[in-house]
């Protein structure tokens, strides 16, 4: 085994570890949020959802900042800064004495975690291209798909033997390992001669350029709508499965099964996208999502919001499969017209879609009333909204192509 080969393996390990931090920080907590809310005496049962929502809130802000900052400082300093915020937030959560203190720690965690998530992808682009980049990304995507399947079980296992605070101890160890590995084994991938000074003016200019293209921000908002459904599910899944359906010990199994649906969808999409195209696959996936949500909403209403668990599991598996098709394709279509400002456009698109998803998805989650009806109303409404924005984006693009004056 050559040193070069070993170095690439280490790089893949580092990028996978940095990428996994976000999913681990969210999904390992899901089995514990009821216990945390109970320990802190949270009056409203739905307030436990903020443990997830505040993390996404911090991540939304960080996503906008860390990419442009890393273009100026280099990749490693930006990731170290993010890891420092993440460690501080994790310690705040671990030793929190109130629910408010925990939420502050979660927001700080999310802000910090956005750096390794965003900047590690830039590290891959810096040093790799073509087949080598595709190979690394395939390993990273494998981790990206496996973590949501396994993470809730890890959180559940910790709860069997220790306090929920030990979940944060595990996240702390993970971040320290990543920081040490980054410091000792990884060289800077962005040399000084390729760095660009950070400029708020350039970021605003990129935003103006981004919003010139309806196809870019139309699909970005559509991504946000699809993601909003997912956030509402993340926030309420523990209440639905552990409490409404009394599946507490099996919650991690149910959550992992639905994560499998997204993983399968990503693999199927990779096989079919070259044959049928992103738009065709996305249109069918979204229409099936809407039809399934409308039909199952009727079924759930006939069952007073508590349909049999096996019917709910089939519905969620199918809709998450559709979402897995939509996530990647919608993001790619949003970025298609803004290649000239790809780095900043990715930061703007990611933050905008997260902002939409967080605001709407959190509100849907807060409507939980002991039945799955609010979740189904949300899934249907977000599907219809994604359809409206994606169709409008395509219509605006067609008008622009047919009228060259609009493209000037």
Question: Which secondary-structure class do the elements indicate?
Answer: mainly alpha
CATH topology heading of the largest domain: Growth Hormone, Chain: A
How many E strands? 0
Profile the largest sheet.
Answer: none
Low-pLDDT runs: 1-6, 404-408
Compute the number of structural domains.
Answer: 2
Shape: globular
Architecture of the largest domain, according to CATH? Up-down Bundle
One letter per element, helices H and strands E, the order comes to HHHHHHHHHHHHHHH
Q: Look at the structure and give the CATH class of the largest domain.
A: Mainly Alpha
End-to-end C-alpha gap? 55 Å
Indicate the radius of gyration in whole angstroms.
Answer: 21 Å
Mean model confidence by pLDDT: 88
Helix content: over 70%
For the record, what is the CATH homologous superfamily label of the largest domain?
MFS general substrate transporter like domains
**Can you count the helices?**
15
The proportion of residues in beta strands is: under 5%
Q: TL;DR?
A:
With 408 residues, the protein is mainly alpha-helical. It has helices at residues 3-27, 33-39, 50-73, 75-94, 99-127, 130-161, 165-185, 200-211, 214-244, 251-276, 278-302, 309-335, 342-366, 373-402, 404-407. It has 2 domains: 9-185, MFS general substrate transporter like domains (Growth Hormone, Chain: A); 200-400, Up-down Bundle (Growth Hormone, Chain: A), CATH 1.20.1250.
């Amino acid at each position: 085994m050559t040193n070069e080969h070993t170095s690439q393996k280490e790089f893949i390990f580092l990028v996978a570890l940095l990428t996994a931090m976000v999913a681990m920080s969210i999904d390992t907590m899901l089995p514990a949020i009821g216990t945390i809310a109970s320990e802190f005496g949270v009056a409203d049962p739905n307030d436990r959802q903020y443990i997830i929502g505040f993390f996404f809130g911090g991540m939304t802000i960080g996503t906008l900042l860390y990419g442009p900052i890393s273009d100026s400082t280099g990749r490693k300093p930006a990731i170290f800064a993010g890891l420092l915020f993440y460690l501080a937030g994790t310690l705040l959560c671990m030793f929190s004495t109130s629910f408010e203190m925990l939420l502050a720690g979660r927001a700080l965690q999310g802000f910090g975690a956005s750096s390794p998530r965003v900047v590690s992808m830039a590290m891959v682009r810096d040093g790799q291209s073509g087949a080598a980049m595709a190979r690394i990304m395939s390993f990273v995507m494998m981790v990206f798909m496996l973590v949501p399947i396994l993470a809730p079980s890890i959180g559940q296992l910790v709860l069997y033997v220790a306090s929920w605070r030990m979940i944060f101890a595990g996240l702390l160890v993970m971040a320290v390992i990543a920081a040490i590995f980054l410091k000792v084994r990884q060289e800077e991938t962005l040399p000084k001669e390729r760095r660009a000074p950070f400029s708020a003016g350039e970021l605003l200019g990129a935003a103006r350029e981004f919003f010139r293209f309806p196809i870019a921000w139309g699909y970005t908002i559509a991504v946000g709508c699809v993601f909003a459904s997912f956030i509402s599910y993340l926030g309420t899944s523990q209440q639905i499965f552990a409490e409404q359906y009394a599946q507490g010990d099996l919650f991690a199994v149910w959550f992992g099964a639905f994560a499998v649906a997204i993983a399968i969808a990503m693999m199927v999409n990779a096989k079919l996208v070259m044959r049928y195209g992103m738009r065709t696959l996305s249109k069918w996936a979204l229409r099936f999502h809407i039809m399934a949500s409308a039909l199952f909403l009727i079924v759930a209403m006939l069952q007073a919001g508590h349909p049999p668990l096996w019917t709910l599991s089939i519905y969620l598996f199918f809709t998450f499969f559709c979402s897995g098709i939509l996530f990647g394709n919608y993001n790619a279509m949003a970025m298609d017209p803004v290649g000239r400002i790809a780095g900043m456009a990715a930061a703007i698109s990611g933050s905008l879609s997260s902002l939409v998803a967080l605001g709407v998805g959190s509100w849907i989650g807060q409507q939980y009333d002991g039945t799955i009806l609010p979740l189904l109303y949300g899934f249907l409404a977000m599907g219809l909204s994604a359809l409206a924005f994606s169709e409008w984006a395509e219509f605006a693009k067609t008008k622009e192509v047919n009228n060259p004056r609009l493209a000037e």
